[in-house]
Amino acid sequence: MKRVLITLALLVTGLVAGAQNITIGEEVPQAAVEVLQPRLVQLLQSGNVAEAPLQVEARIVKQLETPGSLSQVAVEIELTLRSGEESETFLLKGVGENEVDAWVRAMKQFLPRGKAAQGFVARLK
After folding, report:
1. For the CA atoms of 114, 90, 108, 10, what is the dihedral angle to 10 degrees?
2. Which of 25, 99, 103, 120 would bridge with 32, disulfide CB 3.0–4.6 Å?
C-alpha cells in the first residue's frame, strides 16, 4: 500500500511540474483542458523534454449540430502545439451531447504516443 501511495505522489508531482511549462489557450473549455493536459505532460516526458515550454492553441474548424430530441454536436478541432520554432498541428474530431462534451471527446483523440506527436517531440530534442 505504501508503494502505491508513493508512486501516486510521484506521478501527481510529475504532472504538476510538467504542467507549469504548458500554456493552453483560453478558447479550450476547462473540461477539455483536464483531459488534454495530462496527455501533453506525458508527451513531453516521453521524449525527456519536460522542461520545454509548450504553447497550445485550438480552434474549431467545423461544427455541426443535429436538431431534435437526440441532438448532438460534432466538432473538428485544429490543435497546434508550439515550442520554440517547432510546431505541429493535429486535426481532432469529437461528437457529444453538447459542445463541451464534443471538445472533451476530441481531446481524447490526441495520442501522445502517436507517430506525429513523437515526431514533434523528436524535433524538440
Report:
1. 60
2. 103
